[in-house]
């Protein structure tokens, strides 16, 4: 019977299966959820005949078969042609499970992993609580994860950091203050942050730290005025040491205590007090003020040196008096939010200030503005499942995360430095620097611009950068 | 006309997981414009069905934590009854669409919706949605993020379709 397949259409020997006259065989794909098969059938067969073939192939009872094509259920009495089923098309098949319980029961075991450890798929949170809070079970879906110190995550793409700003407050500045307040009121939080391997790995990368600090425009101004500071930043050894300290709050406190004791001894040496004072006013105070201005009140402002006209704070934080000379040196209360710069920790780095520094870059700011215009956005964003699991996986793979952050970080800095809506484009901002560079002989304007963006307008660093990329 | 089976309308709900951030940041981060990170679900029989790290789940329309959709696309009508559909879903859930098979790039909520849409109506979902993973992966940044993103399972809470079979009469 197979001989007649193509030769003699008139002679019909395949009459068993095909009822009608010209039996053009078409190949129809029949797709079940589990499987798919190609079935050859005559073009003008009826659905019943089709089902017969199918039941043989799929080893199911014809009654159990439900055929669907283009949203229609194929009834036995119809023909394939009626539904437009042609060669190469796909028809869907559902094999009805006769008894509901058995059908449902067998599918339980494989799918039962669903509701329970759904987050367990991402390996549950073995991490300390900051990450742990992220993996809240699905039941508590819409409610934002409470009190997450977002700062340390800020380095990894402020998207992830943003998701943690779950305070529901529309004004970003308020948010930041809330964050600080919480941080200050809950010292354990800080140690929790520190314990997070994500943070630790981030902090052990001095380059990253340096970039983050440098990205802060206030810091940049500071650096211009006090070249020693930039030297300090450029000294990896020192950075690493500082990072170590920042990472380990206990150690830091101890060191600070020792330093303070040593310093007070110094005071007793004749002339020592002056040395101390000089040290303070030249180095610490400007830096401290720069760091403090982010947070508002500057109780240490009394002796403004001459090159310290009040730094315009472009982000206009709601601090009422940036120059209150209240004289109440509240060193103790401020330790958590902005670590008092001491000799051993010259940059006054603490975990929270790092994060805040990142937040305050102008690019972030415009983003924040847009978000704060639509407070719902914030709420929605942090409740996005995407965010939570992203954080979880980030937290569990600090290596990957730091690797990711490193290559993309300069890009992100670029983005924030050059890509925000409210301030002029980098070309305009760096107009002066660009001219200077081209006057110096760097004719490649593109490269110049890139370098300037990357260094935030610092001509010297940009030149170094440009020279570094040109081996000649 | 064999209309003794009533037909059911099938809709596609499209949500932007990034809540507008992708539209703003994608040109910079990825180098190309992506209008959103699309998450889709099928709405039929008054229920929203979607696939995530928890397998196939369902909930009242607009009831996932993503809220009401950004866009709704009418996919057409289907004659498939709810019973058959749920049978179909449970088979899918056992095999190709179990929770652990979820892959953010290759086998995600949109893969599921595409397949279900074709099952129910014969129509596919708009291509800009199914093209998204390859769009992202074709950028260097996407490549860098890939290992992290691969481990993400988006699992919005909802009723697990498989287990609700037992409750149906």
Automatic annotation (TrEMBL), chain A:
Record InterPro entries: STI1_HS-bd, UBA, UBA-like_sf, Ubiquilin, Ubiquitin-like_dom, Ubiquitin-like_domsf
Skewed-composition ranges (Low complexity): 100-120, 320-340
Molecular-function annotations in GO: polyubiquitin modification-dependent protein binding
Location of this chain's protein in the cell: Chromosome; Cytoplasm, Perinuclear region; Cytoplasmic vesicle, Autophagosome; Endoplasmic reticulum
Keyword Iron: no
Record domain Ubiquitin-like: where: 26-96
Record CDD domains: UBA_PLICs, Ubl_PLICs
Gene3D superfamilies hit by this protein: 1.10.260.100, DNA helicase RuvA subunit, C-terminal domain (1.10.8.10), Phosphatidylinositol 3-kinase Catalytic Subunit, Chain A, domain 1 (3.10.20.90)
Residue ranges constituting the UBA domain according to the UniProt record: 429-469
Protein name: Ubiquilin-4
Originating organism: Sinocyclocheilus rhinocerous
Phylogenetic classification of the source organism: Eukaryota, Metazoa, Chordata, Craniata, Vertebrata
From TrEMBL, chain B:
Reactions mediated catalytically: S-hexadecanoyl-L-cysteinyl-[protein] + H2O = L-cysteinyl-[protein] + hexadecanoate + H(+)
Top-level EC class: hydrolase
Domain PPPDE: 8-150
Superkingdom classification of source: Eukaryota
InterPro entries in UniProt: PPPDE_dom (IPR008580), PPPDE_sf (IPR042266)
GO biological process: protein modification by small protein removal; proteolysis
EC number(s) stated in the UniProt entry for this protein: 3.1.2.22
Name of the protein described by the UniProt record: palmitoyl-protein hydrolase
Organism per entry: Sinocyclocheilus rhinocerous
């Amino acid at each position: 019977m197979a001989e007649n397949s193509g030769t003699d259409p008139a002679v019909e020997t395949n009459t068993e299966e095909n009822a009608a006259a010209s039996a053009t065989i078409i190949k129809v794909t029949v797709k079940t959820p589990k499987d798919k098969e190609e079935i050859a059938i005559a073009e003008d067969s009826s659905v019943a005949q089709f089902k017969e073939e199918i039941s043989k192939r799929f080893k199911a009872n014809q009654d159990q078969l439900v055929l669907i094509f283009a949203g229609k259920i194929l009834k036995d009495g119809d023909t394939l042609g009626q539904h437009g089923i042609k060669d190469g098309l796909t028809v869907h098949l559902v094999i009805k499970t006769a008894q509901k319980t058995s059908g449902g029961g067998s599918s339980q075991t494989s799918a039962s992993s669903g509701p329970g450890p759904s987050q367990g798929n991402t390996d549950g949170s073995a991490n300390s609580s900051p990450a742990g809070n992220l993996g809240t079970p699905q039941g508590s879906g819409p409610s934002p994860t409470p009190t997450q110190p977002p700062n340390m995550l800020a380095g990894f793409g402020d998207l992830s950091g943003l998701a943690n700003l779950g305070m529901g407050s529309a004004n970003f500045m308020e948010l930041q203050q809330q964050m600080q307040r919480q941080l200050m009121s809950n010292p354990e939080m800080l140690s929790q942050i520190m314990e997070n391997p994500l943070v630790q790995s981030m902090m052990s990368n001095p380059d990253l730290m340096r970039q983050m600090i440098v990205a802060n425009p206030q810091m940049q101004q500071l650096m211009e005025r006090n070249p020693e500071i930039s030297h300090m930043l450029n000294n990896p050894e020192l950075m690493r040491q500082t990072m170590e300290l920042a990472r380990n709050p206990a150690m830091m406190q101890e060191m600070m205590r020792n330093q303070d004791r040593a310093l007070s001894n110094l005071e007793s040496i004749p002339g020592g007090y002056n040395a101390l004072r000089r040290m303070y006013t030249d180095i610490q105070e400007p830096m401290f003020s720069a760091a403090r201005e982010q947070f508002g009140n500057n109780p240490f402002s009394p002796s403004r040196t001459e090159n310290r006209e009040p730094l315009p704070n472009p982000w206009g934080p709601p601090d009422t008096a940036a120059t209150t000379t209240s004289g109440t040196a509240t060193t103790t209360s401020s330790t958590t939010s902005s670590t008092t710069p001491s000799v051993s920790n010259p940059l006054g780095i603490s975990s929270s200030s790092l994060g805040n520094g990142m937040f305050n870059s102008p690019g972030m700011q415009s983003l924040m503005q847009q978000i704060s215009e639509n407070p719902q956005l914030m709420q929605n964003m942090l409740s996005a499942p995407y965010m939570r699991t992203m954080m979880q996986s980030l937290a569990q793979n600090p290596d990957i995360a730091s690797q990711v952050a490193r290559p993309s970080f300069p890009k992100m800095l670029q983005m924030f430095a050059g890509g925000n809506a409210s301030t002029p484009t980098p070309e305009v901002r760096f107009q002066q620097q660009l001219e200077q560079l081209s006057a110096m002989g760097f004719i490649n304007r593109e490269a110049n611009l890139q370098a300037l963006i990357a260094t935030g307008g610092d001509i010297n660093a940009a030149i170094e950068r440009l020279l570094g990329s040109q081996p000649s | 006309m064999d209309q003794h089976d009533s037909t059911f309308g099938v809709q596609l709900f499209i949500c932007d997981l990034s809540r507008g951030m992708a539209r703003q940041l994608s040109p910079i981060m990825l180098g190309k414009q992506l209008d959103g990170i699309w998450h889709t679900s099928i709405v039929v029989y008054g229920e929203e069905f979607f696939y995530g790290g928890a397998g196939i789940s369902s909930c009242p329309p607009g009831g996932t934590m993503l809220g009401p959709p950004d866009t709704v696309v009418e996919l057409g009508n289907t004659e498939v009854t709810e019973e058959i559909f749920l049978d179909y879903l449970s088979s899918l859930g056992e095999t190709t669409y179990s929770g652990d098979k979820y892959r953010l790039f290759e086998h995600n909520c949109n893969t599921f919706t595409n397949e279900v849409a074709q099952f129910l109506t014969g129509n596919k979902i708009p291509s800009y949605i199914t093209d998204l993973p390859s769009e992202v992966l074709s950028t260097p940044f996407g490549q860098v993020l890939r290992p992290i993103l691969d481990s993400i399972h988006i699992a919005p809470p909802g009723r697990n379709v498989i287990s609700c079979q037992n409750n149906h009469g």
